[in-house]
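User: Some background: our group keeps a shared notebook of sequences we're curious about, and every so often someone picks one and asks for a predicted structure to add to the entry. Today it's my turn. The entry only has the sequence so far, pasted here. Could you supply the structure so I can complete it?
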Amino acid sequence: MRADRSSPAVAFWDQMRRGDWSADPYFTQPPDGDQIHNFAKLLAKIEYIGEYGIPDSTTDVNSLNEGIWEFKHHHHRLAYFDTPGDGTFESKEKIRDRSEVDPDNRDDFWWYPHLDPVLRLTNAWSKQGQLAPPEEVERALIIREEDVQHDR
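Assistant: Of course. Here's the predicted structure to add to the notebook entry:
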């Protein structure tokens, strides 16, 4: 949630669900069936992490910067962070060194940190290049700060 009580993630979510997110460069006349399909796929990826604490596939998420992660499906990206929901935040980055995790952890997701119980969606964009647009990552960081401040 932004300081002004708006939520870019909710706006994106509602538009994708209806198939009318016009910021999508591949957008076709609404309702865009591909968007509706991609909405369902993103929702399934979020629900999977909520249920199991790890992604279903190594290609479902990316670590971006300072504890901001992204869900991804096709060219759609949806940024998120984790919080205990009490007005605090501790950055959890992708684990780069396997020796930093439990030696019994032999699964494919050893690199995915144990997140706090609440995942908060921040903003969304359509992937156009190799990296996430820096302005969108910065926007996610600002939204995170405003959201955590709201919890306080």
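Suggested note for the entry: The chain has a mean pLDDT of 94. The radius of gyration is 16 Å.
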